[in-house]
Amino acid sequence: MQISEALKKATKILYQKIESPRKESEKILLSTLKKDLTFLILNEDFKLTQEEIDIFFKKVARRASGEPLEYITNQVSFYSKIFFIDYGALIPRPETEILVDFAFQEILKLSPKNQIQILEIGIGSGALSISLAEKLENANLDFKIIGIDISQNALKIAKKNIENFNYSSKIQILQSDLFQNLHSQFFDLIISNPPYISENLKGKLQKELEFEPEIALFSGNDGAELFRRLLKEFFNRPEKILICEMGFDQKKIIQDEVCKLANTDYQLIFYQDLANLDRGFILKKKINS
Ligand SMILES: C[S@@+](CC[C@H](N)C(=O)[O-])C[C@H]1O[C@@H](n2cnc3c(N)ncnc32)[C@H](O)[C@@H]1O
Fold first, then answer.
1. How far apart are CA 122 and CA 246, in angstroms?
2. Under 8 Å between Cβ of 117 and 184
3. Is the CB of 150 inside a 6 Å radius of any atom of ligand 1?
4. Residue 148 near ligand 1, beta carbon < 6 Å
5. How far is the CA of 247 from the centre of ligand 1 (A)?
6. How many Cβ atoms are within 10 Å of 230's Cβ, its own excluded?
7. Which listed CATH number (1.10.260, 3.60.20, 1.10.150, 1.10.8) goes with 3-65?
8. Helix, strand, coil % (nearest 5) of the chain?
9. 242 pairs with which residues across the strands?
10. Where are the CATH 3.40.50.150 domain residues in the chain?
11. Bridge partners of residue 172, in order along the sequence
């Protein structure tokens, strides 16, 4: 079977099941052949081996059954870079790129004299920490990131990405339930994109989410269980800045929780995504508190 024929057949299988059947068929074929787009364009009549055909159509069937393209190709694009991704970690979302930008801006405001210490809670694939690391490096800043996650599977994926991007000396990973295994370390900034979907929505969301780890998605009845724990622990720690992504409908929950817990002066700023939905917050304890 030639490439052109295989793509036609795959597009037909995926037609009306996904938004871009031809484009995704091409991506699946490229990941099967481990080639780039130029190869496809120049070799439409290239004859596939039986093994390549079998692997390709198995992957197409996975996509037709609702599995995310990223898990099939083991690739995800985030902040203009391609990361390795697999079942153990959440597929990083484009909206999380905003968190990278806000974290970077806050770090610039610190006008640091010593090495900047950053903590990411729930590092997942590592895409967020690696993207932030690249920005800090480009700005000639000295930094160290510790990325923790409760999931060993996620940490394995983060490790692979950190090694692929040569950040092993700058980003350290650690298995921990929130701050549990961090002991007395101090961080200039804490960032997190925690799980924030309500458990009540399990099985009621788009099919693709069923393939992602539940621990990366769901958090109690209102989706804010981990936020409550995180905020409580944050207010008992010496760190002054926490930046988090959150659900578009969680502003009030976060406001109430911060008011309840804060025994110190603080500033709470919410940020929006491109669709103008509340998407995250920056919580700062006042300098002298
Ligand atoms: C929404 S994912 C974010 C992953 C990645 N940072 C990103 O933005 O793509 C949340 C991550 O938090 C981790 N997590 C969940 N509960 C945790 C806990 N109690 N302590 C530490 N990490 C936790 C999950 O394993 C998951 O990797």
1. 13
2. no
3. yes
4. yes
5. 14
6. 22
7. 1.10.8
8. 45, 20, 40
9. 190, 283
10. 93-285
11. 146
Question: What is the Å distance from ligand 1's center to 21 Cα?
Answer: 31
How does pLDDT run across 217-266, given as a tens digit for each residue? Answer: 999 999 999 999 999 999 999 999 999 999 999 999 999 999 998 877 89
Answering whether pTM is above 0.70, one says: yes
Q: Is the CB of 155 under 6 A from ligand 1?
A: no
Cβ-Cβ contacts under 8 Å for 244 (sequence gap 6 or more): 99, 191, 192, 193, 194, 227, 230, 280, 281, 283
Task: Give distance in angstroms: CA of 82 to centre of ligand 1.
Answer: 20
**CATH 1.10.8 residue ranges in the chain?**
3-65
Cα Rg, the chain, nearest whole Å: 21
- Give the CA angle between residues 175, 95, 165 to the nearest 5°: 50
Specify the DSSP class assigned to residue 281: E
Does residue 215 have its Cβ closer than 6 Å to ligand 1? yes
Q: For a ligand 1 pocket test, name from 226, 229, 231, 243 the mutation site with the most ligand atoms within 8 angstroms of its C-beta.
A: 226
Would you say 202 and 223 are in contact if contact means Cβ atoms under 8 Å apart? no
| CA of residue 212 to ligand 1 center, whole Å | 12
Read off the tokens for 264. Answer: 């110190």
pLDDT digits (tens, 9 = 90+) for 110-147: 877 789 999 999 999 999 999 999 999 999 999 999 99
Ligand 1 atom nearest 120 alpha carbon: 6
The pair of structure tokens assigned to 204 is 């009621």
pLDDT tops 60 at residue 289: no
Between CA 54 and CA 275 the distance in angstroms is 41
Contact, 84 vs 49, CB < 8 A?
no
| Residue 58 CA to ligand 1 centre (angstroms) | 30
CATH placement of domain 93-285: 3.40.50.150
